């Protein structure tokens, strides 16, 4: 898997207001880095820059040593799989929802992704299995089930880099723990950047970066940061 690096990234949505003030960090190949910080710190902005919804005013963002400004949008989309906070499900079958973006996927691939996302036992209990309609006109899924479908969809695309953008923030705490366990498992062998509001949700990260007002305040492992308060 590739390394992701921010190198002195300066960015503001408006020229008069800088949001990221020369931000540098690295997610080493195959490792899990988490970014935590209060609301407004700039966490989601990092994700938007990674997908080039915006470009930095200065500095560079590198994937496997390559400046993403020189990478085709399509390869960027293939390289990074995002699990967002509120995953959008279509009013369609589970099969459609999981295979979305990889319409040519085989049955075996779909089932494997569902299994990895720990939604397969749930699907197997449904009379119509993968053909079950979900959403407004079909089966209502819980928040956790929706996230698992979204995780399966992301895994099926096979991206080497994973971006968890507050992926469990909308869940109740019991469900959050379940989904966290799954995210921890599926992120093995991926370069993973997890963006989170609270320290408790990313306890297993290799490195935790604390972002405040577009600056890195500190970094360390979970236990170190708790000790420092
Ligand atoms: P976080 O994800 O840490 O809550 P964001 O990255 O969403 O923070 O936002 C960082 C700052 O950028 C905030 O002050 C926010 O108000 C501002 N911001 C976010 N999106 C936009 C936008 N589209 N236009 C202008 N300012 C924005
Ligand atoms: P695609 O059909 O290739 O998924 P999209 O335009 O929906 O195209 O998204 C491009 C990439 O950006 C995808 O990997 C998608 O998961 C991701 N993405 C979509 N919405 C957001 C968002 N709000 N924030 C960050 N990334 C997003």
TrEMBL record:
Residues 4-229 form the ABC transporter domain. It is found in: Cell membrane. It comes from the Bacteria. This is ABC-type transport system ATPase component.
């Amino acid at each position: 898997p590739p390394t992701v690096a921010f190198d002195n990234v300066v960015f503001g949505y408006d020229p008069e207001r800088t949001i990221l003030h020369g931000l540098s960090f690295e997610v080493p190949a195959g490792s899990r880095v988490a970014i935590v910080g209060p609301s407004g710190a700039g966490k989601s902005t990092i994700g938007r820059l990674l997908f080039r919804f915006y470009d930095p005013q200065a500095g560079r963002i590198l994937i496997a040593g390559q400046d993403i400004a020189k990478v085709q949008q399509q390869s960027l989309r293939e390289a990074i799989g995002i699990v967002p906070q509120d995953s959008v499900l279509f009013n369609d079958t589970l099969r459609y929802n999981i295979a979305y973006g990889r319409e040519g996927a085989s049955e075996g691939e779909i089932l494997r992704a569902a299994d990895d996302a720990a939604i397969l036992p749930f699907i197997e209990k449904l009379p119509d299995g993968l053909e079950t309609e979900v959403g407004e006109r079909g089966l209502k899924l819980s928040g956790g089930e929706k996230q698992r479908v979204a995780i399966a969809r992301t895994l099926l695309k096979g991206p080497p880099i994973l971006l968890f953008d507050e992926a469990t923030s909308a869940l109740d705490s019991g469900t959050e723990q379940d989904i966290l366990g799954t995210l921890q498992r599926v992120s093995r062998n991926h370069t993973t950047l997890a963006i989170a509001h609270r320290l408790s949700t990313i306890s297993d990260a290799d490195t935790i970066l604390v972002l405040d007002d577009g600056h890195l305040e500190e970094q360390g492992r979970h236990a170190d940061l708790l000790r420092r308060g």
